[in-house]
Design goal:
Layout (H helix, E strand, L loop, with lengths): L2 H32 L6 H27 L18 E3 L4 H12 L7 H11 L1 H12 L10 H8 L5 H7 L3 E3 L8 H10 L2 H14 L9 H5 L7 H19 L2
Antiparallel strand pairs: 1-2
Helix pairs in contact: 1-2, 3-4, 5-11, 9-11
Length: 247
């Protein structure tokens, strides 16, 4: 959902609930003052009280969407089934945000532009893997993503843009059955060559790291996908895949 539209919908919901809350209070006061039969006041109090509580809870819920729409997922939808195995870039939000704030000395509320960069940090590691999957034709293409994948292959778009289209989650439905066991192995056991690569990319971007996470966590989430590093990554993962297949 577009962030501007999300903010508009959240604002409308808050306004509606605020009106309901005010009407509930005024109606109850009116009944207390003018109703000659005071025996039914507890009943009206319970009804209007529940309406007031419900309105306040809805206002609280939508106030977060209004203030920080960029942190509310999903941004884009596909028709992927829910799968057992997947990589969720949203899990990296806390460390990516901490890195971003440290790098740019950001305090207080973040803007939509800030959130866009943080999401790229969240997806950095998986974006390199995803680009390799696309390059090696292990991606499952459907009509809704075909044009974007073609643009990515031409390097007109970046793989983190594809991540947005799949709700920032890579599932086994997105890749071929042939490659999925290797991807699961990659994220279960890891490769020293890839860890070294990510550390080099990270250090080329910044050495400012927050102290609330481990260095490895920080190093994997303090930069965005960059084409100038991808060809090196592709060679490294090609070798790891060859070794994995025993070729």
């Amino acid at each position: 959902m577009d962030e501007d539209r999300m903010k508009k919908n959240a604002l409308n919901a808050m306004i509606t609930c605020s009106v309901i809350a005010v009407i509930s209070v005024i109606a109850f006061i009116f009944i207390v003052i003018f109703d000659p039969d005071k025996s039914d006041i507890p009943l009206f109090g319970a009804v209007f009280g529940m309406m007031l509580i419900a309105s306040v809870l809805v206002i609280i819920k939508y106030s977060k969407e209004y203030k920080e729409p960029g942190k509310v997922l999903p941004q884009h939808k596909t028709n992927n089934k829910v799968s057992v195995g997947f990589y969720n870039a949203e899990w990296n939000w806390d460390v990516a945000e901490a890195n971003y704030r440290a790098q740019y000395n950001k305090t207080g509320a973040l803007t939509e532009q800030d959130h866009e960069v943080i999401w790229k940090y969240c997806a950095a590691e998986i974006s390199y893997v995803l680009m390799w999957i696309i390059d090696r034709n292990f991606i499952n293409v459907d009509p809704s993503t075909e044009a974007l994948i073609t643009a990515i292959r031409r390097r007109e778009k970046t793989p983190d843009e594809f991540m947005e289209c799949i709700d920032m989650k890579l599932t086994e439905d997105d890749v071929s059955d042939k490659i999925w066991p290797f991807i699961e192995y990659y994220y279960s056991d890891g490769f020293e060559s890839i860890d070294g690569f990510l550390e080099r990319v990270s250090k080329s971007k910044t050495n400012i790291l927050p102290d609330i996470f481990t260095e490895k966590e920080n190093r994997h989430c303090n930069f965005a996908f960059d084409w100038k590093f991808y060809d090196e990554f592709k060679m490294l993962l090609d070798k790891e895949y060859k070794d994995y297949c025993g070729e």
